[in-house]
Amino acid sequence: MRDQYKTKTYLIAELIAARQRLAELARAEVEQKRLLTIEQQQRTLLEAMYQASTALHSTLEYDQVLDHILDQLKQIVPHDAACLMMPTQSDMARIIRWHGYSRFGSRNFVLMLKIAEIPSLQTMNETGRPVAVSEVSAQDAWVAWSGQEWIKSYASTPLRIRDQIIGFLQVDSATAGFFSQADAEHLEAFASYAVLALKNAWSYGRARREIMQQVKALKTERNFVSTILDMAGALVVILNAEKQIVRFNQTSQKTSGYLFDEVQDKYLWDLFVVPEEVETVKAICDRLAAGHFPIEYECQWLTKEGKCRLIAWSSTVLLDHHGSVEYIIKTGHDITERKQIEEALRTGGERYALAVQAANEGLWDWNLKTNEIYFSPHWKTILGYEEQEIQPSVDEWFSRVHPEDLARLKVDIATHLEGTTTSLKSEYRMRHWNGDYRWVLTQGLAVRDADGQPYRLTGSQTDITRRKMTEDELRYTSLHDALTGLPNRVQFMQHLERAIGQVKENKDYVFAVLFLDLDRLKLINDSLGHLIGDQLLITVARRLKNCLRPGDTVARLGGDEFTILLENIQDSGDATRVAERLQNELALPIHLEGHKLSTSASIGIALSTTGYDRPEDVLRDADTTMYWAKARGRACHELFDPGLGIHPLERRELETDLRRAVEQQEFQLYYQPIVSLATGQMTGVEALLRWQHPQNGLIEPDEFISLAEETGLIIPMAEWVLRAACAQIKAWHTAGYSFLRLAVNVSIRQLRPAGGQQDLPGLVSTVLRETGLAAQVVELEITESMPLINNDFNRVILNELKMLGLQIALDDYSLDSSLNVLRQFPLNTLKFDHSLIKEMSYNPEDAAIIKAIIGLAHELKLRVIAEGVETEEQLVWLRGQQCDEFQGYLFSPPVPAPALTELLQAGQHVEVEVLAKSG
């Protein structure tokens, strides 16, 4: 019985062991399938990359390359829509190509984006790395700026030529969670092919334009030698009507090895064309001689030494005065290396790539069996030695390696010889002849016998000292703001991420983030120039840093935005006290270039006690709170409350709507009469802007003008106002009301237009010419805002406007305004602010001051207009003080053009009896 039990127990154990072996085999099979799937995916991706590269390089036409980029992108990273952006000189990004957006009904597609206000673009601009956003938030800047509300996930990569970003490639999806960081890296890999294709197209286009310009000059000058030989980078060969070579530029001579005297009067196929392509080249020349041009093709080019170069040719002809072909002009680009590199990439040819790279570097060849090594002369020159000063010994190499780097180099060599790595690649320092250490890059490949054992190691050595120094500089610049030297967004987010980690490790650890936005910096830039604005930012950065403890971090995110990380604080009171100290420090006067300036900041505060897992969320809440502080009246600080919610989003939506309004001209003009106090008759109108929002109805300017000023949208808005108002006043003149003059408000930004925008005098001249309106009819109203108007530059602009014949009015003049501005600037009219008119009824002292200002204005030969007149008592008093004109609800509120036409037709005026009371 016992034996039976043992047997049964043994069988059960065997069965369990068998099942375990089967399970292990199943797991191994699953793992093998997984690895095979990954390998297949990588192989598929490489094949797609090769096919995409081939397609991208199938043309040298720039526009076609742009189209091919978006066409081929779908093979690499699937998506619903994609676009290609190029940065402009004004820190904007222009969308130049896009696919797929129209099927989502995207009528509000924005083609110009501000890089600094889109975190994904700003991050790529600063780091040069791709970005993936798996799930967009409700406040996502890319979605808001582009107007594509359907986007739920996106990925982007910069297009770089060396360290310069020349564009951005963006893919979007309507599915949340669609893109990952791996997709962004695939996008980055594809971008390298796209950049190469764009660079080739640029070079080709530039050379072709230069050549065609030169050829056009040749037609009249026939100065072949001086023109063609100046062309750099392209082969230029000119054939006569008999297809013989008559000109052969220096690039052609350098590429072929032939001098011009050796090829003159020869045929191309006699010297340069390989036998199998002779008939093709002859046929092309025959077509050109028959007048069929231009023709582009590629062919092998035989050099004098018998080597072949692959040349991409573009051919055209020059006609004589009878219209017959006089010359055939062929321009070519050597694309041999490009084709070879493409082939190397396709076949994985590391050995060839190494050989190409080593051609102009220091070579070494190590016989592992005899331990003999060869160093090329250039290898020795890199270290400052002559040919005979270094012997063929491995010790000559290793003894000069920096002691801290030698072990790593030997490990790199050993792992490659063992077959762990496919090639040798190692960066380390070597001692130069003068005692300094130089950074070098060594690359090599092992040569193996039939059994796979290495018997030889061959490679190259490159001096990368300059590159290492550049990398150190780039590492610093990638983490610091170039203007102020403060940490930038990247470094700040790293510090913030560490602080969040400390909170998770220590529940008593508290930190705060302060988000600062300087108030009115854009106006200072526009009025005093960006040099003053930059100096102001540097001063502000220094003051902020001086207000903080050594362990705290202050960073500049860009523009007028700063962030501060206060670590290891007790509670919110510490953060608010720092905010108050910062605001007091910023309020102190700043003297720059003879200007006395002061600034302030709106500050939003977010505390770690809210509970955060990501640094982006902390910054978002601090940014949100800053907008609430700004809404309170600037120079304020606010502590984040989860209930604050939507305000910044509403602002972004308002900005998006306002941009659409500018594009679609969703505006109306209202006109308020200007009335003579002497006659009671209407003498002019002031044009006032209203926004006819498609959903929210008519919006008053107080709700959007400040945002328009801040974003620069005021420039196109003000131009629209000027054109529309001048056209309307011209219509009234034609209808018989020629006594009307027009008052139009001018933004301070118009006095200093950005690049590409027309200056104000030029714009006014154009509008007057287009409408046929006399300059004397138009009065431009400038708001008195010191120091924005009180500088020499603006004085010059106002004088230019005055010389055109326009009237200049100083608007919103109050008791706080400067008297100096009345004599320093070329003014015609002074307009009292409505608040001043309202106060004079209650304060006799204010009334006395107003009376004195009216007298002074008349002494300066200025017309005086009172705004906001609502009662007969105000009207009578103003007429008694010889005020010239008035505006106000007593006569009429601002009304649309048809309503004002009715007032004109009815002969609306102030009754003489009312005016007589002042007598």
Structural features, described:
By secondary structure, the protein is an alpha+beta fold. The protein contains 33 helices and 33 strands. The strands form 6 sheets. An 8-stranded mixed barrel has the order 24-25-27-28-29-30-31-32, surrounded by 6 helices. The longest helix is centred in the N-terminal third of the chain and has 55 residues, at 2-56.
Oligomer: single chain
Number of strands: 33
Q: Quick one: biggest sheet? A: 8 strands, mixed, barrel
Contiguous low-pLDDT stretches (5 residues minimum) are 218-232, 344-359, 785-790
Residue-averaged pLDDT: 81
From the helix content, strand content and strand pairing, which structural class follows?
Answer: alpha+beta
Our measurement of the CA-to-CA distance between the termini, rounded to an integer number of angstroms, reads 139 Å
3D shape: globular
List descriptors.
single chain, 919 residues, alpha+beta, eight-stranded mixed barrel, six-stranded antiparallel beta sheet
Task: Outline the fold blueprint.
Elements: H1 2-56, H2 62-76, E1 81-87, E2 92-99, E3 112-114, H3 119-127, E4 131-133, H4 141-146, E5 153-161, E6 164-173, H5 181-221, H6 224-228, E7 235-240, E8 245-248, H7 250-256, H8 260-263, H9 268-271, H10 278-289, E9 295-302, E10 308-319, E11 325-334, H11 336-347, H12 350-358, E12 362-367, E13 372-375, H13 377-382, H14 394-398, H15 403-417, E14 424-431, E15 437-448, E16 454-463, H16 465-477, H17 489-505, E17 512-518, H18 521-528, H19 530-546, E18 553-558, E19 561-566, H20 572-586, E20 590-592, E21 595-597, E22 601-607, H21 615-631, E23 637-639, H22 647-664, E24 667-676, E25 682-693, E26 697-699, H23 705-711, H24 714-734, E27 741-745, H25 748-751, H26 760-771, E28 778-783, H27 792-803, E29 807-813, H28 820-824, E30 829-832, H29 834-840, H30 844-859, E31 863-866, H31 872-880, E32 885-886, E33 895-896, H32 897-906, H33 912-916
Parallel strand pairs: 22-23, 25-27, 27-28, 28-29, 29-30, 30-31, 31-32
Antiparallel strand pairs: 1-2, 1-6, 2-3, 4-5, 5-6, 7-8, 7-11, 9-10, 10-11, 12-13, 12-16, 14-15, 15-16, 17-19, 17-22, 18-19, 20-21, 24-25, 24-32, 24-33, 25-26
Helix pairs in contact: 1-2, 1-5, 2-5, 18-19, 24-26
